[in-house]
User: Fold these one by one.
Assistant:
Number 1:
Amino acid sequence: MASKSQIMNGNPGRLRRLLRSFGLVALGLSAGRAPAAAQSTDYKAASEAPAAWRDYASRLQGAFQQQIDADGDTSQWLVTFAAEREKENKPLTFVVSASILPDGRMDCIAFDSSMDPELGGRLRPLLASANAGAPPPDMLQPLRLRLRLRSTE
């Protein structure tokens, strides 16, 4: 398999742009692990969430990006996967629900039903190993991040 430096040198900047586009589109926070219909009353849109929660979501997004960036094989696979999806006009947007322990380790990573099974299988272990530090004690969980991958030339 190609090393990270080979990937980066083979297509300068493309991987970095892809990973930067692995971005926070919206943030939702919900209490407990109730069914989706029950969670809707506890859901907070990013614009309504306290600043500390938004800051933590941004840190978590960065931790997710670092985990993906550190795995050169997965990073290269994501570049190819995102490019193929774009050719088919299939946006690569999905929701990650993360339950976070008080020390910042991930307790549970789940994806919404729109997640491609192969993509989910590759991302879950990487995201599960992310650590953005301790979450705000009053933050509703699981933290729901809507993420989008784009292949940018």
Number 2:
Amino acid sequence: MAIYHFEAKVISRGKGQSAIASASYRSGEKLYSERYNKFNFYGRSVAPKTFILKPSNAPDWTLDRQKLWNEVEKIEKSKNARLARDFILALPSELNEEEQEELLLDYCQENFVNNGMVADIAIHRDKDGNPHAHIMTTNRPFKENGDWGTRQKKVYHYDEQGNKIYDKEKKTYQCSTEKTTDWDSKERLKQWRENWAIAINNSLEKKGLNITVTDKSFKEQGKKELPTKHLGSYAHQLELKGLPSENGDINREIKKYNQLLYKQEQLEKENEEKNQTNPFTRHFTPKEKRILSDLSKELNVFISFEKLEDKKRMLNNWKNSALAKQAMTNGQEQEPILSKIKDQKEAVEQAEILLNKEAQRFISAHYPKVNTNALSPYMARELVDKTIHNEQLFDLKETEQILFKSQQQELSHNLSLLLKDPYISVRVMKEKLNKQEAILKTFCAKHDIQLENKESVARQSDEVKKVFQGIIQPLARYEMAIKAVHYYHETTIKEHLPMIDSKQLNGLQKEQLCNAILYFGDQLEEKVVIDVLNDRQPMKYDTATKERLLTGLLEEGHTHLSEIEKQFFENPSMKVMFFNECVQTKDFSKAGKQTLKAVFDKNYTNVKDELNKEKNVEEKNYYRNNTNNFNLLKGLGTNLLFTILRGESEPERPAHKLKKKKHKNDRGYSPKM
């Protein structure tokens, strides 16, 4: 998996640094320093690939590395002068050397050279799997005639009449200094960092790889774990010899903290799954729970509840572990293939297969006493993942405890998948149910079987009966799954909208109301509920926000979306409902309409399919089935719905029709978001 690393520093005489020595170290060339009257040379086992790029107004001598940095040493006279900027950029290993060079040179030209800087570039490949570039850039601009320019200029202050303001005390005109470039600004550095991520993503996409990187920090990404510090060459050598380094000690403490954080997050996840499924599972027998659990595993691959990026990240964590390297070579070979798969369903299926294979290899290599054939994929994956995070193998007793606990957790985990995205679950199950019913209908017609007539089945051969049984069993499973999700809808509505009698709603109405609860979150208002139950599209966002979000979804890596927005759109249901809202928006600008179409065409064919299904539902007036002019509550009328939601009294209402529940705030509508 491609990594993002962008490090920016300043080479300064005040820190005892020399421009010539720095350039020699990075380029691997022997360079003479006129200032210090000595040669500098740092030999390397693999010679760096070097380039120098200059702006059009810079003199030709800047293409001579020794001349360039000696001239810098001359022009910067201060004892603590800033001599150059120094960048270290990791190159994506998914690209070949030629592609890496093209990516790097284009980036340096656009971001540094076109802004007036000379860029001295050295690509280092002396460490396996760690191709990176060092870039030294000049710190002072050039004039149009090729002479050195100034880094700052004097700006005089003027009065209202346009005259210079004279300071009598200082006996001089008032003035201030202004920098001639923005190279020192935080905004420019941020732009350079962001542009490097964009450049990498564009190169990976050009090669057909479904991989992205981000310039955002862990904090900006909403991650709680702490990043480790860069060791540097000297500290790295110390660590290899078994000697501690300052940053190495800091990194060990960071890893301990991240391990504790991981354990806490795993515990919270387990508790969340239990809390979500316990009220749900107690209504089913043990046999029904096992059936639903198996269905959840089937759904997990079919509709990719677990994000593909999570699977890739898990593979990458495993691959980079010292424990895993000897046992998991196949994953490293297949990961690039996985990255080329554009279809989400196919990619998820391949990721599942790959994760399961790698887990089997890891356990066979490090836990030979464990019978891998007796482990479910979930149990095997849990053991590997916990071992990787622990950074050492567990003993036999600890291993048994982990496997036993994971076996207990698997049911809650699988059932939570079924409930994680009920919007899609019901559609998948209905689709499977319809296909199975069509198979059953064809089979019955072929063998003259009438479902209401047991004798028509009894007279069939044993072989036909066996096939018939195999067709019937999935029907019961799919119906049970749909029933389970509908029960989940009822409990969700009861929790968040206790004054709505969900028993008076048909299945689709319950589903739409549940989706609104998830989609609107703490923005859920009475009007939204009324719109949903009256077959009107509720609007969560204003048009300007919708256009901004569409633009963010169109960008590679969604760099202009907040982390909360990214997480929101990772849920397939939320994405479908957002596009439903966009389709119903009439006042998009011309650019907004084009962006909407571009997002559909580029990335969201699956969403388009879902929207087409929604359109078919509307054409059939499915919302109106089993209702009488949207009189949803036992025929009492829409006006009553307004009354219930507002918590007002209704004199004409028959007392036996609705049981009103008292709320702590004495309002009928009190969602617990």
Number 3:
Amino acid sequence: MADRGKSATLLLRLALAVFLLLGHAFAQQDTSQTSSASSTTLEPEPTLQDGLYATFGVGVIDVEPGSGVDLPLGFTLLASRLRALLTVNVLDMGLLQRKSNTLSRYRRIFDVQTGGDFCFDQQTQQFTNYNKCSGDTDVLRSMTVDVNFLPVTELYVADHLGVIHVGLGVRALKPRTVYGTLGMFFPSASGKAIGAQLSMGRQYIYFGMKWGLDVRRIAKLI
């Protein structure tokens, strides 16, 4: 429980730091725009590029089996006029570092004299093949769907227009839970997009970045 609390606290601090940095960048951008408005020619205001985006993400995840890297793959639909954002990750794959289990049959032992690691079978009380102790990475497959409301539809960061979204989602497996979301999404006229999201539910915390490409652009490439 202590390890889980530490990892959860670390994830929350990381997410908070990213949101604070982006907020600071937005504040600086807003100040520079105000100071230069009187001396520069007004340009057309950017508009949000609504559409359906194929997305790929990379983040960190903490669930009951362990903590590790999470790779969500799916689609994001942005409808700013409706102040809505829908995300469906058809494959949410996590590579987890399994948490220590004192009841595990196989246990790693470090020999101070030789400086080597050995694998000990607690059932037979004998040393065994080290490979039986090295299988400590689990692959976790799931699916997530979340529906978000856009309280802010004019977020500027480094000349990029984006949105802030909050909402609720459902994770299908491992664990099966309802979670809350908080994040940002920045589409562009080129058809590319980038975003960040924090998700928290029962025995489930995720924070990561995602990149997207408008499916209409993909269709043109094909």
Number 4:
Amino acid sequence: MNAITRITSNYDWITLLFFGVICVVWIAKSLYYHRFMEFLQLPFNNKYFSAILKEKNLESSFTLLMLVVQIVSFSLFLWACLQTSIVLPVNEVSSIPFWIILLGVFLFISCKIVLQVLISSVFDIQNYTNEFLYRKLSYLNYSALLILVGGAFSIYNKNLSISALYITFFIGFLVNLVGWLGILKNYQKFILRYLFYFILYLCAFEIAPLLIVGGYLTTK
């Protein structure tokens, strides 16, 4: 089933944005070549995490560069969804400017990271949660690269289809599912020890925000 295309304005600003993101990826690859190549193999082996955890350098410039890619990629994908009948009724068009979406995604991701770090400090479990959050963030960064490619294909396709966006979303979801399974496997003892708090974490930081954002978008 194809969605009705609503992207009627020129693509100049989108092209510049994609070019900027590609430059960020190029910088990350140039400055951290070996780490970048290991990052590309993330869903298939643990070389990337083994090297990072050995160096104990979780707050690296490479991670920050990829976080920029994640924020822009997710914002573009959400904007593309708002231009189709995935979110809005067929005869409606989104009036939300892209910069509002970008700001919202930035604040959403930033607040989640800050709150999770603060809570881990309160419970004095930083050693575990820092690695846990880093793994989760890495898989989100990886899925952002794939979503960026899928989003570009969807946006520049004259017949923007629901299928293309759904496939892109499914691929991103699958990558993060692999990441979560790896997290559950590697931290099962820690999770079982703090099972109640882990369930609260899932509800408060993973499930609830998605439900709130999804509910907001479907009512607009």
